[in-house]
Amino acid sequence: MANLWFHFSSSMFSMLCYLIVCPTLCHANFTRNDELALLAFKIYVRDPFNHLANWSNSSSICNWVGAACDANGERVSVLNLAAMSLMGTLPSQVGNLSSLVELDLHSNNFHGNLPKELLQLYKLKILNLSYNEFDGKIPTWVGSLFALQYLIFPSNSFRGVIPPSVSNFSKLVTLDWNNNFIHGSIPLEIGRLQHLKILHIAMNNLSGNIPPTISDLSSLELMSLSFNSLKGDIPNEIANLINLKIMYLDRNQLVGYIPRSIGSLVSLQQLELGSNNLQGYIPKGIGNLTKLQLLNLDYNNLEGDIPEGIGKLDKLQELYLNHNILQGSLPSDFGCGLPNLKKPYLWSNKLSGRIPNTVSNASKLTLLELSGNNFIGVLPTTLGDLRYLERLKISDNNLTTSDASNSKTNIITSLTNCRRLKVLVLLANPLYIKLPKSIGNFSDSLQTVDIVSCGINGNIPLEIGNLANLISLSLDKNVLNGPIPTTIGSLQALQFLSLEGNDLHGLIVPELCEIKPLGCLHISQKKFYGAMSPCLGNISSLRGLHLGSNKLSLEIHSSFWNLKDILQVNLSSNHFGGCLLSRVENLKVLISLDFISKSYFRDENQRFLRNAINTQSSKVGEVWHMGLSKACGGHQSHSFAAFNCDIATNPVPGGGFNGTEFKLHGQAYIPSRFWELRDEIYVIQSSHNCFSLFLRCLFDLIFMWNGVPWVSNGSLVPIWINLHGLPTEFYAESFATLIANS
What we know:
Blueprint: H1 2-44, E1 67-69, E2 76-80, E3 87-89, E4 102-104, E5 109-112, E6 126-128, E7 133-137, E8 150-152, E9 157-159, E10 174-176, E11 183-184, E12 198-200, E13 205-206, E14 222-224, E15 246-248, E16 255-257, E17 270-272, E18 277-281, E19 294-296, E20 301-304, E21 318-320, E22 325-326, E23 343-345, E24 352-353, E25 367-369, E26 374-378, E27 391-393, E28 398-400, H2 411-415, E29 423-425, E30 448-450, E31 457-458, E32 472-474, E33 479-482, E34 496-498, E35 503-506, E36 520-522, E37 527-531, E38 544-546, E39 551-555, E40 568-570, E41 575-577, E42 592-594, H3 603-612, E43 667-671, H4 693-703, E44 704-705, E45 708-709, E46 716-720, H5 735-741
Parallel strand pairs: 2-4, 3-5, 4-6, 5-7, 6-8, 7-9, 8-10, 10-12, 11-13, 12-14, 14-15, 15-17, 16-18, 17-19, 18-20, 19-21, 20-22, 21-23, 24-26, 25-27, 26-28, 27-29, 29-30, 30-32, 31-33, 32-34, 33-35, 34-36, 35-37, 36-38, 37-39, 38-40, 39-41, 40-42
Antiparallel strand pairs: 1-2, 43-46, 44-45
Helix pairs in contact: 3-4
């Protein structure tokens, strides 16, 4: 009996020792495993800023940067290494951190696939891998992380489809896979995520229809499916998402009508359906969305009137209805029920009627964009009461400044009260007013003035020079007269100036040269005379110079050729003389050139033409459009002297080289080597000039390549050349003479 008692006592003592000692040893073992896992992590990744310097045996793992332990201080429960510029792949040893609740690696440079060992993180609630370079397919096993509440992968390079196993995330609150390369359709199983509040899978390659099961996400507060290729209708069942606050379905290929039931989503604060193919009417029920702050229906095919209820959404701040085919008038009290409205975009519709005076009751407006409609009547001077207004764009309507019941008022004077105004665009309205002296009263905030085709008459007032921060001034196609005011030189921020198509006259004032940042100068189709100001060549910022159709004369000053960065030049239809092309090679990046129209050259240059040109009994006339006619900002040329300039392209008669045309009447010949310049050879055209020495310079450039004539065994290839309109005493003789002289 004693022996039995002894053995029993020994067993009990051993068990007691195990219960006391083993937990300490086991926890130490687990802690050691966590330590080894993190040290392996450190080995695998690059740490350029040495953030992980204290990850070593010399300190407790719970004190390591980015690591946090559980309440007992025994296991790593949080690993947050966000925004540390770490690089490399995610090592499989991370899976050994089996007590991890949160793993946050966002805003680093990790890449590669996700290791399958992440499956071992069965306690994981937060997984944030956003803003990295992870790639590969979204693994199907990800659905086995049953404890996950936040799955955040945006701005990576994940591919493949959304696995149906996402339905296993029964506790998931946030699913954010925005901005990846995920394709395929949204699985029906997504409707099982009963606790989901945020669904953000925009900016992918998703296709197919929006599944009706999405309406089962009864807890959903944010749904963003923008910038995909989703098709079909917006499901009516979407009205079941009564907790939805934000819905982004814009930039897809959705069709059909906006569901009437959308008016049931009374919690909505932001609704984006723009840039789809939606049609029909805007549902009146949208007026029930009294919490709405943003409504975007732009770039669709919506028609009919704007529902009156929209004008009573007192929390609405941004309204995008532009680029539809909406009709009818604005409500007569438009603005009265919109005290918080800041940005109404209504341009490019078929809206008509008057702009109501009550628009100024929307006192927080920062912009008003009504361009491209059919508005009529008087521009309300109450617009000047909008003290926060920064942009006013009402172009391409039929708005005036007076009618039968009003004396003529000057809208510009009233707008000077808008002290924050930056952009003023009134173009293509029959305003028929003078520019008042009060234009100089605009605040320093004004940067853009565009009053083109408005029937503006009278002089440009001297006070225009007060607009110290003006960047762009466009007064084209009006009936302005008189000279350019000398105060124009005070516009020291001006980059773009266009005064084309007016009745301005006089000299090109040298004060223009004082505008150092000037990039584009357009003063064609006027009555300016005299020499081109030599100081224009000192405006090093100049990229476009358009002085055509004036009465400028004499030779172009040598300083002009200092404009080495200029892209476009139009000096046509003037009275310039001399050889221009001999200096054109200085303009290394030129992409558009027209300086021949009606520019007259001296007699000694015409004598050269008689001796040098003879095209098989064709009369040589005015040469039209010597133009390199691509728009500013197109393909840059390499060397104008070698005629590597990107210019107008058309099919050549009878075939041709790479679709590039010499559209020039009267048949002539040039050497076959001319065809060997690949894509770098382009149209040579010219415009309404008596050209003489010009041809000498031009053909020197055409027929010489690094000093070698372009002749191949003496064979000549026919080409079309338009020499239409040159004075009748000029007759062409032979290109052979010209080639020989070259």
